[in-house]
Design a protein that fits this description.
The protein is mainly α. The chain is 78% helix and 0% strand. It is elongated, with a radius of gyration of 21 Å.
Length: 183
């Protein structure tokens, strides 16, 4: 017998679980030194693992919804994906804010310095061009702005991935299930 679950509760549950998993992954990568922030480049392994956890969590959320409701429409899949991204993003935003303000407040300066060295050493920019761009970079590389951008990014990414997963997992319900009359 199917029990009905909502897109909100499913998205919230799996978004929070996935958020905790990605935070644990990030913390492990940070504490073991596997994530190299001093280079100013995105760590490939960390990125792959984070996306794998996110896609896996979203897949499990949509599957959970479909299995417990007996069917899944594209709209229900997108609703679940939206709430998944919202709660994943909220948890991630809080983590980013706490991490860069309290756990390692000097890390942003390290990242900014590495980005400057990479831009100037690679000949991508002159010193004058970099000084002009530095104001924008400083505005966008504050913990608060990074948290907000992460929240929005998680919602958009979850929505896009959720659309694909929903198209694959779409399952029409049996119209006779709701209309059965017991004699």
């Amino acid at each position: 017998m199917n029990q009905n679950v909502s897109t909100f509760s499913t998205g919230m549950r799996y978004g929070l679980i996935t958020g905790v998993a990605t935070i644990i992954l990030g913390l492990i990568m940070y504490l073991t030194g596997m994530a190299d922030y001093s280079s100013g480049k995105q760590d490939t392994l960390s990125t792959i693992l984070t996306y794998a956890i996110m896609i896996g969590g979203l897949f499990m959320a949509i599957k959970y919804f479909r299995d417990n409701n007996g069917s899944l429409t594209i709209g229900q899949g997108l609703g679940t994906s939206f709430y998944f991204g919202l709660f994943l993003g909220l948890l991630s935003a809080v983590w980013v804010y706490v991490f860069f303000n309290f756990i390692d407040p000097g890390l942003l300066d390290t990242i900014k310095e590495a980005a400057k060295e990479n831009a100037l050493a690679g000949g991508q920019m002159s010193e004058e061009q970099y000084e002009q761009a530095e104001g924008y970079m400083n505005a966008f590389m504050s913990p608060g702005i990074m948290a907000i951008m992460g929240l929005i990014g998680n919602i958009i990414m979850s929505f896009i991935i959720g659309l694909i997963v929903s198209l694959i997992m779409k399952k029409e319900g049996n119209p006779l299930d709701e209309n059965i009359i017991e004699a």
